[in-house]
Amino acid sequence: MSAPLRAASGPQDPVPGQELGEAQRCLTFALRKAAREVTRAYDAALRPTGLRSTQFNLLVALNFMGPITTTKLAEYLAAERTTLTRNLSLLAGRGLVKVGSGGGDRRSRPVAITPAGRAAALRALPAWRRAQAAMGVQLGARELESFVDRLGALVRHRP
User: Fold this and answer.
1) What is the pLDDT of residues 23-49, one digit of tens each?
2) Which residue in 7, 14, 139, 156 has a CA-CA distance of 20 to 30 Å to 89?
3) What is the span of the domain harbouring residue 128?
């Protein structure tokens, strides 16, 4: 019978078999953890507008890209197409985007922001600016811009 598991008291506890110790500084863990915190902050700022940060970002991307297929939009956003389709359906249900038929191929369905979607994004822009400014205060304005640029470089250079 093995000993019962116990919770570690904190990050300073040694990892059994020290060979995993370096993995505590894993980039993906740090990015995912930070992404959840940043998303919570932006969602809180955007809540009065009726949009979540993911929805706002979709509207901004569609405004920038113009009509585009769901596959191309997923590539642009580095998003899973199934997750994107679900989020687009929610926005389409509110009349903020229009998803076309695309013939028989669901991957080639065109999607575009509607005038109501553009208006919703514009109404949410001041809330987004407040969230962005708060991140700038927390990280430093120059550091925030540099960080966003560096993250963009990671996405552009995917294998």
Assistant:
1) 878 889 888 999 999 999 999 999 999
2) 156
3) 28-156
pLDDT in tens, 89-119: 999 999 999 998 866 666 678 999 999 999 9
φ/ψ (deg, to 5) at 23: -70, -10
Q: What is the pTM of this model?
A: 0.80
Tokens of 57: 């970002």
Query: DSSP string covering 51-77, please?
Result: --HHHHHHHHHHHHH-SEEHHHHHHHH
Q: φ, ψ for residue 136 (rounded to 5)?
A: -65, -40
Does residue 2 fall inside a structural domain?
A: no
Quick check: is 56 in a domain?
Answer: yes
The Cα–Cα gap between 75 and 48 comes to 30
Nearest Cα to Cα of residue 110 among 72, 59, 141: 72
Number of domains in the chain: 1
* 38 lies in some domain: yes
Cα distance between residue 6 and residue 29, in whole Å: 22
